[in-house]
Design a protein that fits this description.
alpha+beta; 2 helices; five-stranded antiparallel beta sheet; 5 strands
């Protein structure tokens, strides 16, 4: 599972050939969460509140890039890195 971005100790991943809806995985300090890209909302998992706010903000800023990566992943093509929050 390739890391597509990292910021403030949070790692963002996307798998190839995943199930719908379009989503990504985030990990921080032993916690993991799955985020729906279209809604920028948690599908599954638990995250510390502060870090979840950062992940949601990042998702909103990079929604188009995330959806483009989702399409690449569904075609088993290389996934692009996405700029972190700074």
């Amino acid at each position: 599972m390739p890391v597509i971005s990292e910021f403030f100790g949070i790692k963002i991943y996307m798998y190839w050939s995943e199930h719908l809806p379009p989503h990504f995985h985030a990990e921080y300090g032993g916690n993991s969460v799955i985020i729906d890209i279209n809604n920028c909302a948690v599908i599954k998992g638990v995250f510390p509140f502060k870090q979840l706010k950062l992940v949601i903000a990042w998702c909103e800023l990079h929604k188009e890039e995330l959806l483009a990566n989702w399409e690449l992943a569904m075609q088993n093509k290389p996934i692009q890195k996405i700029a972190p929050l700074q």
